[in-house]
TrEMBL record:
Alphabetized UniProt keyword annotations: Lipoprotein, Signal
Originating organism: Litoribacter ruber
Name of the protein described by the UniProt record: SusD/RagB family nutrient-binding outer membrane lipoprotein
First and last residue of the signal peptide: 1-25
Disordered as annotated region, ranges: 428-459
Length: 474
C-alpha cells in the first residue's frame, strides 16, 4: 500500500492556496496517528466546512436581511479583499484526496470499507461542485482546472467563469449518474449515507446553477435545468445540523454570546410588515423597549448606529440563532421558486402560478407559520398575487424573503434578477458607493500567483467590488 503523508480534515501546511505540505521524512510523522487517511474522516471534515458558507454574515449584510447594530463597516462595504485559501487547502483538498484514493488501483480496495468507490467519488464530486459554485459566484474567475495539484503546480491559472459553470454542470450530471443505489458511504453526517438524497441534491444544485446562466447562455441553462429536474430533486429542506455544544454550535448563537450586533434591517422589515407577512415575527424578536418589531437602519455610520439603544431594535429571531438551530443549505421553497421561473420561461410545462404559491407556502411551513386562511389572504394582496407580466419581479421579491440568512444565494439571485430593488448603504465606504457585485481576490494571489492573477483581471475587469462576473448582466 502507498504511504500518504497527508493529515485528514484539511490541516494547513505551507501555501493555503495549493495545499502542499512538502516532504520532511519521518520528522513530520506522528507515531500515534495513522499515515493513511480515512476517507470517512476526510468527508466529515469537508462537510463541516459548509458552516462557513451557510453561517456567513457578510453575504447576509449584502442581501440586507440584517443590519449591524454597533460596528457597521461590513454593511457599508469597507472590506474589498476576501480570502479563498481556506476553501482550497481544506474541504477541496480533502475531497480531491477522496477521489484520488478511490481511483488509484493501489488504494481503492482498502478505502472501499467506507463505501463503494463510485459512491465516495460521486459524493466528493458533488461537494466539490458545491464549493466551487460558491467560490466562482463570489470572485468570478478562480483557479479551477489547474487547482488542487499541490507541489505539481504552485501557480495555477484561473479559468473563465463560463468554463467553470459548464464543467460544474457536467460534474453534477456525471456524479448523479455514478451513484450506486442501495449502498452507502461513511463519514456523511449531512445525509447519513443516503445516496438517493445525494443524487437529488446533485440534481437540485444543477437546477439552481442552470438558472444563473438564464441571461447569458439560455439554451445551456434550459437543457441542464430540464434534465436535472427530470432526474429527481430534493423533497425536503436540506439543512446544516448544529449541536447544543460549543464545538458544533450555530454561528449566529456564537455571535450573540459576545455582543448583540445584528438586527433585522429596515429594508427587509419595510417590505414584509405592510404585507402582514407571518414570517417576520420568526425572523426577528420583539424589541425590548416596545415589545414590537422595530428594525435597525441599514448601512449607517457607527455614530448613527451608536445613537440607537440596544433596547430599541429587534434582533435576529431566536428560531434562527438557537445553539442547535439548523441553517439552510438548499430548501424546497428555493427549488419551487426555481421551477416557477422555469415554467414562466417556458422550460417546463407546469403552472408558474401554482409553483410560485408552493414556494411561498413551503417557506411559511418551514418557519412554522403556515395557516391556510392567512396564507390565502397573504397571496391575494396586489404586491404578492401572481401576474405573468410581473413574474420575475414577484419571484425575485418573494424569493429574497424566503432566502432569509441564505446570504450568498440571496445576493446571487439579486444580482441575476435585479429584484428586489435594493438601495446601497446610505453611508457606503467603497469607492462607487454601490452594492458589491463580487468580492476581490486575496492579496496573496496578486503577490504570489501574479501572472495568473494578471490574466484573470485582464479578462474579467479590475479586481474590485464593482466588477461584474460573467453571468451578472442584469
Amino acid at each position: 500500500m502507498k504511504k500518504f503523508k497527508y493529515i485528514a480534515m484539511g490541516l494547513i501546511c505551507g501555501s493555503l492556496m495549493l495545499g502542499s505540505c512538502g516532504e520532511f521524512g519521518d520528522l513530520n510523522m506522528d507515531p500515534n496517528r495513522p499515515s493513511d487517511p480515512l476517507t470517512s474522516s476526510l468527508l466529515t471534515g469537508s462537510q463541516r466546512f459548509i458552516t462557513n458558507v451557510v453561517g456567513d454574515a457578510t453575504s447576509v449584510l449584502y442581501s440586507q436581511h440584517l443590519a449591524e447594530k454597533q460596528y457597521t463597516e461590513a454593511s457599508r462595504y469597507q472590506t474589498i479583499y476576501f480570502d479563498f485559501n481556506a476553501f482550497y487547502s481544506g474541504p477541496l483538498m480533502n475531497l480531491q484526496r477522496i477521489i484520488e484514493l478511490n481511483t488509484d488501483e493501489e488504494t481503492r480496495l482498502d478505502v472501499s470499507s467506507a463505501g463503494s468507490n463510485n459512491n465516495q467519488i460521486a459524493v466528493a464530486r458533488i461537494l466539490k461542485a458545491y464549493y466551487f459554485s460558491v467560490l466562482t459566484d463570489r470572485w468570478g474567475e478562480i483557479p479551477y482546472s489547474n487547482a488542487l495539484q499541490g507541489a505539481a503546480n504552485f501557480a495555477p491559472q484561473y479559468d473563465t467563469q463560463e468554463f467553470i459553470y459548464n464543467d460544474l454542470l457536467k460534474e453534477l450530471e456525471e456524479a448523479a449518474a455514478q451513484i450506486d443505489e442501495g449502498q452507502s458511504v461513511q463519514g456523511d453526517f449531512l445525509f447519513n449515507g443516503n445516496m438517493d438524497n445525494w443524487r437529488r441534491f446533485a440534481n437540485s444544485l444543477r437546477m439552481v446553477l442552470s438558472l444563473r446562466l438564464s441571461n447569458v447562455a439560455p439554451q445551456v441553462a434550459q437543457s441542464n435545468f430540464v434534465s436535472a429536474y427530470q432526474g429527481g430533486i430534493l423533497t425536503a429542506d436540506f439543512m446544516y445540523p448544529y449541536l447544543a455544544e460549543a464545538n458544533n454550535q450555530n454561528p449566529w448563537f456564537a455571535r450573540y454570546l459576545t455582543r448583540v450586533d445584528y438586527a433585522i434591517s429596515n429594508t427587509l422589515h419595510d417590505y414584509m410588515a405592510p404585507l402582514n407577512d407571518p414570517r417576520l415575527p420568526v425572523y426577528a424578536d420583539p424589541a425590548a423597549e416596545s415589545g414590537s418589531i422595530n428594525p435597525m437602519p441599514y448601512g449607517v455610520t457607527n455614530t448613527v448606529a451608536g445613537s440607537i439603544t440596544n433596547a430599541e431594535v429587534s434582533y435576529l429571531g431566536s428560531f434562527y440563532r438557537g445553539q442547535s438551530s439548523p441553517l439552510p443549505i438548499l430548501t424546497v421553497s428555493q427549488l419551487n421558486f426555481s421551477l416557477a421561473e422555469a415554467a414562466h420561461r417556458g422550460w417546463i410545462a407546469e403552472s408558474a402560478a401554482d409553483l410560485y404559491e408552493d414556494a411561498i407556502r413551503a417557506s411559511m411551513e418551514a418557519n412554522g407559520v403556515y395557516d391556510p386562511a392567512r396564507f390565502d389572504a397573504f397571496m391575494a394582496q396586489a404586491d404578492v398575487a401572481w401576474s405573468d407580466a410581473r413574474a420575475l419581479e414577484l419571484i425575485g421579491n418573494q424569493k429574497w424573503v424566503a432566502l432569509f440568512l441564505q446570504g450568498f444565494e440571496a445576493w446571487s439571485e439579486w444580482r441575476r434578477l435585479g429584484y428586489p430593488e435594493l438601495s446601497p448603504a446610505p453611508d457606503a465606504l467603497n469607492q462607487s458607493r454601490e452594492i458589491p457585485r463580487r468580492q476581490a481576490y486575496p492579496t496573496t494571489e496578486r503577490d504570489i500567483n501574479t501572472s495568473s492573477w494578471n490574466e484573470a483581471v485582464s479578462r474579467q475587469g479590475p479586481d474590485e467590488l464593482d466588477t461584474r462576473i460573467w453571468w451578472d448582466v442584469n
